[in-house]
Amino acid sequence: MIQSIIYLLLLFILLAAFFAVFASNLISSLIALSILSSNLVVLFVILQAPDVALAEVVIASGITTGFFIITIDKTGGRR
């Protein structure tokens, strides 16, 4: 049962990564990147690595997403 949940999470991570790379809108890419990070957090918790999950929440989901939002806002969302 756990194995199938892990495979499903890995599939969601892969789909979010492809969408983040190939999206035409910067905000859509940022949302996909946040979804990827949250799926990684869930995966790390399932794999019993809470310290890595906590670092992923703080760094990738929190700080990096915040910096990207500020940067996209300051540059006007130009590519």
TrEMBL record:
It is a multi-pass membrane protein. It holds the Pfam family MbhD. Residues 11-75 form the MrpA C-terminal/MbhD domain. Coiled coil: none annotated. The keyword Transmembrane helix applies. InterPro entries: MrpA_C/MbhD. It is found in: Cell membrane. The chain crosses the membrane at residues 6-23, 30-47, 53-72. This is Membrane bound protein complex subunit mbxD. It comes from Orenia metallireducens. The lineage of its organism: Bacteria, Bacillati, Bacillota, Clostridia, Halanaerobiales.
